[in-house]
Amino acid sequence: MKIKITVDDIDIRDWSERRISNSRVYVFFNDTTCTIPFCRAVKDMREQVVPKVLKYMGLPAKTSVAWNAYAGCQCGCSPGFIIKDNAGIEAKEVFVDVRIVK
Ligand SMILES: [Zn+2]
């Protein structure tokens, strides 16, 4: 089943002390009743959320982006997308608020 996702807010944080080599994108569902596990929404997030984030960051639409269950933390609490090609910009952490459209 296709999940329809709308992006509410994109927030780029530049935490230089994190020393990450590639930008990370974390997606947060604002709808607290959403019980869809991330693993089931990855395809829909890739189609409906990632293009908006890339555009917001000024990166090319065809930039390679990979889902990683451990994008932000080794314990798995912060899954997200890792942008494979920073296109010369400094790595950033991007926080995206989304909502499921019912
Ligand atoms: Zn963690």
Description:
- This protein is an alpha+beta fold and 102 residues long.
- Helix content is 19%, strand content 30%.
- The chain contains two helices and five strands; from the N terminus they run ββααβββ.
- It has a five-stranded mixed sheet with strand order 1-5-2-4-3, covered by helices on one side.
- The radius of gyration is 13 Å and the shape is globular.
- It starts with a strand and ends with a strand.
- The model has no long low-confidence stretch (mean pLDDT 86).
- Zinc ion (ZN) binds next to loops.
Q: Main β-sheet: number of strands, strand sense, barrel status?
A: 5 strands, mixed
Can you list the ligands bound to this structure?
zinc ion
Strand count: 5
Strand order of the largest sheet: 1-5-2-4-3
Following the backbone from N to C, one meets helices and strands in this order, namely EEHHEEE
Form type: globular
Structural class of the helices, strands and pairings? Answer: alpha+beta
Specify the helix fraction band. 10-25%
